Amino acid sequence: MTRTIRFTKMHGAGNDYIYVDTGLYPISDPVRAAIEWSRCHTGIGSDGLVLIGRSPRADFSMRIFNADGSEAMMCGNATRCIGKYVYDNGLTDRTTVTLDTLSGIKVLRLHVEDGRVATVTVDMGAPADEPVDYDGRGARAMREQPVVAGGQTFTATAVSMGNPHLVIFTDDVESVPLPAVGPMLECHPLFPGRINVEFAEVRADGSIRMRVWERGSGITLACGTGACATAVAACLTHRAGRRSDIVMDGGRLTVEWDEATGHVYMTGGATKVFDGEMETDID
């Protein structure tokens, strides 16, 4: 038996997801839905599925499923899009919104122009070390340590932004064969839960060019938590200060690691692509 659900396709810096208000359209099998609907030729086409719900701890809640059905703890680009979704659709009239995620409650500051959300600043919380046993001496902070994959040695820093990231700085990010090395690093034995991978290049103007291989999705145009992890890694390794513009294939985000609070603040746009209806037999 089929039913019709309404969805909204949105993207943040090119990182595109399918958004469903579960208060109107409950989804009991989000894993199957994410896999089937994310397919470009037979579904809607996206990097994954985002479910917007209600929470007793915050104004709204978010669950996010990658295109392979795996559930992510956090997505910075999706949080910005949810801020735009709930305000532009009249679900709130507040310009400060709290969002319950698997990596904690995030605070969104909505920047409104002509009655619509133009950009969103997300308090991403404090970054943390992503402990790795990189030399057989036990899991601990990983800063500028070698990782061998596919016969190549990469110098990498691991950072957690609620989900794990491996940041690798290079002199020429455009030449990195990301389709080849991305999956090898994502599934490297050092990371039994798999990891997101960012290659980054600090440019002469101080901006950081970043390309990303996302855990469970592959190459995407942008990754909000990845941008934050890259900015933090650049600061930790003395390549940049506490504020960086991160330039990805899909656009630019501004990331500031506040010294007073220790929190990372990410600012960028959120774009509605279209509304649609989907006939599905998924409950």
Automatic annotation (TrEMBL):
Active site: 75, 223
Positions of substrate binding: 15, 66, 76-77, 163, 196, 214-215, 224-225
Subcellular location: Cytoplasm
Catalytically driven reaction(s): (2S,6S)-2,6-diaminopimelate = meso-2,6-diaminopimelate
Involved pathway(s): Amino-acid biosynthesis; L-lysine biosynthesis via DAP pathway; DL-2,6-diaminopimelate from LL-2,6-diaminopimelate: step 1/1
Keywords: Amino-acid biosynthesis, Cytoplasm, Isomerase, Lysine biosynthesis
GO CC terms, sorted: cytosol
Stated family: Belongs to the diaminopimelate epimerase family.
PANTHER family listed in its UniProt record: DIAMINOPIMELATE EPIMERASE, DIAMINOPIMELATE EPIMERASE, CHLOROPLASTIC
Its job: Catalyzes the stereoinversion of LL-2,6-diaminopimelate (L,L-DAP) to meso-diaminopimelate (meso-DAP), a precursor of L-lysine and an essential component of the bacterial peptidoglycan.
Quaternary assembly: Homodimer.
HAMAP family per record: DAP_epimerase
Protein name in UniProt: Diaminopimelate epimerase
Organism whose genome encodes this protein: Candidatus Avibacteroides avistercoris
Organism classification: Bacteria, Pseudomonadati, Bacteroidota, Bacteroidia, Bacteroidales
